[in-house]
Amino acid sequence: MENLDVMVLRALRDWRQAGRRGLLATVVRTWGSSPRPIGSIMAMAEDGAVVGSVSGGCIEDDLIARYTRAHGDGVMPTGAPAFVKYGITADEAHRFGLPCGGTLELLLEYDPDPASLDTLVASLERGRLMQRTVTLADGSVKLNEASSPAALTVNDTELVNTFGPEYRMLLIGAGQLAEYLATMAQFSGFAVTLCDPRTEYQTSWNVPGVTTTTEMPDDAVTAFKPDRRSCVVALTHDPKLDDLALLEALQTEAFYVGAIGSRRNAEARRDRMIEHFDQTEASLARLRGPIGIYIGSKTPPEIAVSVMAEILAVKNAVQLPREAAVAVAKAAAAAV
């Protein structure tokens, strides 16, 4: 599945280029619990078509009824962007399906400029990180390439939101586990690349939408150019393939670098890297293994769930309890 923001912006661009009216809704503030985080976007066409989400669905329904012809009486305004709040009272929170005490505020942009949207989408498709600044007085937009991700900001005069590039995952090894993990990663918005120089494994690969390469894994890591929105996961159990890829990945800004394997294999891998590749405990501090969180998983799909959960936790800066680590949990279980 492609990055959701890109999908939303592309759909809105296509509507506007085709001469259809459209609206861009952005979550700009939340109070209490909220179904979608600040910065989430949704596009809506004049006929009620919607891409993206700002809630669980009830707010989308209200926007459609208010601002489109889908129900016959909706009218989409023109002019400067406008703010709208949902869930201000307990009754409204209940009506719109918001959690107890939840309130969110949206900025609605009417008929965004198609040329500006096209420039933004093209930049995101080329892997650029883009900052979009909206002047609240008239809805004019300024685009700049950003140097680092940033949270949405809004004040009395402008809104600034940073988009893209999409998160990426490089998998080393084309086994069954990789198929499940690649599928889950795509549903989570990652662009997935698979590396396996073993042709017998490549022939059975059947996950659509994944870029494949038969380069040696360390060369694949170099070509992949991992950044802060990338993760590298080694799944072959073969040191000749995994080790050099992991060492290469540890020299990058990848937010997650890890390898499948037992506790014994993980310890052996670290020993090899220290003895033969001049690594230290400090240089290997970011190397994860055994990967995943402990859920008692034994089958490939369950292991993939475990690994994907850990990757998402790291991506979202969630500090997992020490007891959730596979090695710690298994060691505790063995001691009982």
TrEMBL record:
Pfam family, one: XdhC_C
XdhC Rossmann domain: residues covered: 169-311
UniProt-listed InterPro entries: MoCofactor_Util/Proc, XdhC_CoxI, XdhC_Rossmann_dom
XdhC- CoxI domain segment(s): 15-73
Name of the protein: XdhC family protein
